[in-house]
Amino acid sequence: MAIDRIFKDEASEEKGERARMSSFVGAMAIADLVKTTLGPKGMDKILQSTGRGREVTVTNDGATILKSLHIDNPAAKVLVDISKVQDDEVGDGTTSVVVLAGELLREAEKLVAAKIHPMTIIAGFRMAAECARDTLVAKVVDNKGDAEKFRSDLMNIARTTLSSKILSQDKEHFAKLAVDAVMRLKGSTNLESIQIIKKPGGSLIDSFLDEGFILDKKIGIGQPKRIENAKILVANTAMDTDKVKIYGARVRVDSMAKVAQIEGAEKEKMKEKVNKIIAHGINCFVNRQLIYNFPEELFADAGILAIEHADFDGIERLALVTGGDIASTFDNPESVKLGHCDLIEEIMIGEDKLIKFSGVAMGQACTIVLRGASHHVLDEAERSLHDALCVLSQTVNDSRVLLGGGWPEMVMAKEVDALARKTPGKKSLAMEAFSRALLAIPTTIADNAGLDSAELISQLRAEHQNEGCNSGIDVISGSVGDMSERGICEAFKVKQAVLLSATEAAEMILRVDEIITCAPRRREDRM
User: Fold this and answer.
1) pLDDT of residue 321
2) From which residue to which does any coiled coil extend (predicted)?
3) What's the confidence (pLDDT) of residue 1?
């Protein structure tokens, strides 16, 4: 009995088969959970939080779904992590990566049951992934040189990305929005300068792209509503000290007159500060903190537009976009970089007034205004658009493009199979398993569309025996179709990331042979 007492009372361990079993089962369960969201006919999930608000999220984005789950199974956590990384890294393919990893494990489970050592399986997977990646690299199309073609590639990628999301009805419209926004970035992958504003009302098709920068604020009272050739000072400073704040400071005075004196002194200080700010020769002052009515009045007298409480993202983005710095002291005006823009005016979207800065210094910035029936629709639209923007900005840098619709998987599977036939030893079994796992993606796309996946995949396999075949699954007509005619494209970077992270995750879970769960810390009784 003495041997069992290594761990504390509550700790549990699972060894060998049982550990492997539990990690396989957990990972496959997660993969099956998001499997139905894959592809143009994928379904959405409703996530309801148990928190106070009981917020409801309706989403199709693999990473969002998995992020919101509280999972106990260690292997499942690995899958959640890879989808998160995929989301941060390339933005799209979050569902594919989990489905692929889950399928690899499903195949690996069969091999382990057939008494093949996990290390052998991993070695086989490694070789297979390497082979698959080389195949993709050999098959990419790169239209960087030809601007027209490249733009149509981008449009196709955007359409393909959006077609599995809520925006699929208006995907032309949104693909154009996304491509325009990304083309303005001129090759930087910094999506900070694309601002997305969500305003309920109207329908999704009313969304539009605005060249300038829109700040979700109203213009103060008695201030100019429209300024041309604006010089903007972006600041983060307290403009609320003209009244004596009672809390925080204790001042003993013997008469009310003294209080008045203190207030007068504060007011003078404030006035000095405002004059210092005006001395910068600006006509627009944006502050992160609030501005009391006294300084606001002074600004209005000087004909300066003062905006208060511009939230942090807003103000950092504004500084970035107009090319100014965020200032907090105003003693030496010459060292502060002011922001510039051609025109500041108030616009109405729906019922809300917003301030629009147009003709900004950084031509890369733009604002996408999303309209939609409800908050849920808007949130999901924003997520989908964000996916598209990420993929596009990655593609602008790495302009290699592949066809979509299960085509890359079929090509990879074919090559991996060919390699497996040449490879002696048990590794070849693992490689065949890898190619079967790759086929899971087109299979799932077909299943989600309610098509006969076995029939379609075998047709595809036959077609892919021909050299230079472009066939993939066309879910709209429910048959095998030519992907290049349909314009279904994917970014090479996304596919590569899916392939490599799924393989690595599967490897990691395969290596596990023991799961030790620590004893929870006891709460001492504080009686």
Assistant:
1) 74
2) none
3) 46
CA–CA dist 390, 304 (Å, integer)? 38
At a CB cut-off of 8 Å and minimum separation 6, what does 350 contact? 199, 200, 201, 202, 371
H-run or E-run covering 234 = strand 226-235
User: Which of 248-257, 300-309, 387-396, 460-469 is predicted least confidently?
Assistant: 248-257
Residue 278 and residue 303: Cα distance in Å, rounded?
10
Determine the Cα angle at 99 with ends 453 and 157, to 5°.
80
Of 26-40, 226-240, 430-444, give the lowest mean pLDDT range.
226-240
Residue 188 has pLDDT above 70, yes or no: no
Rounded mean pLDDT of 56-83?
A: 84
Contacts (Cβ under 8 Å, ≥6 apart) of 251: 244, 259, 262
From first CA to last CA, the distance across the chain in angstroms is 36
> What DSSP assignment string belongs to 394-441?
HHHHS-EEEE-TTHHHHHHHHHHHHHHHH--STHHHHHHHHHHHHHHH
The mean pLDDT of 24-33, rounded to a whole number, is: 87
Annotate 57-103 with DSSP letters as a single string: EEE--HHHHHHT-----HHHHHHHHHHHHHHHHTSS-HHHHHHHHHH
Query: Could you give the residue numbers annotated as active site?
Result: 61, 94-95, 387
275 CB-near residues (< 8 Å, 6+ apart): none
Q: Is the pLDDT of residue 329 over 60?
A: yes
Q: Indicate the length of the chain as a whole number.
A: 527
* C-alpha atoms less than 13 angstroms from C-alpha of 262 in its C-beta half-sphere: 16
pLDDT value of residue 2: 47
Distances (CA, A) of 27 to 68, 297, 454: 16, 62, 24
Residue-level pLDDT at 376 = 83
Q: What is the residue whose two structure tokens read 């036939």?
A: 421
Residues whose CB falls within 8 Å of the CB of residue 402, separated by 6 or more in sequence, listed in order: 136, 139, 140, 141, 408, 489, 490, 491, 492, 495
Determine how many CB atoms are found less than 10 A away from the CB of residue 400.
Answer: 19
Choice between 317 and 123, residue whose per-residue pLDDT is larger: 123
pLDDT of residue 247 exceeding 90 = no
* DSSP letter assigned to residue 41: T
The two tokens of residue 508 are 């990691």
Q: Which pLDDT tens digit goes with each residue over 234-246?
A: 877 777 665 555 5
Q: Give residue 292's region: left, alpha or beta (phi > 0; psi -120 to 50).
A: beta
**What three-state secondary structure class fits 355?**
strand
Helix (H, G, I), strand (E, B) or coil at 264: helix
Torsion, Cα 156 161 163 166, to 10 degrees, reads -140
- For residues 527 and 510, what is the distance between their CA atoms, to the nearest angstrom? 47
Q: Taking residues 260-265, what's their average pLDDT?
A: 80
Instruction: Choose among 195, 20, 209: nearest CA to 121.
Output: 20
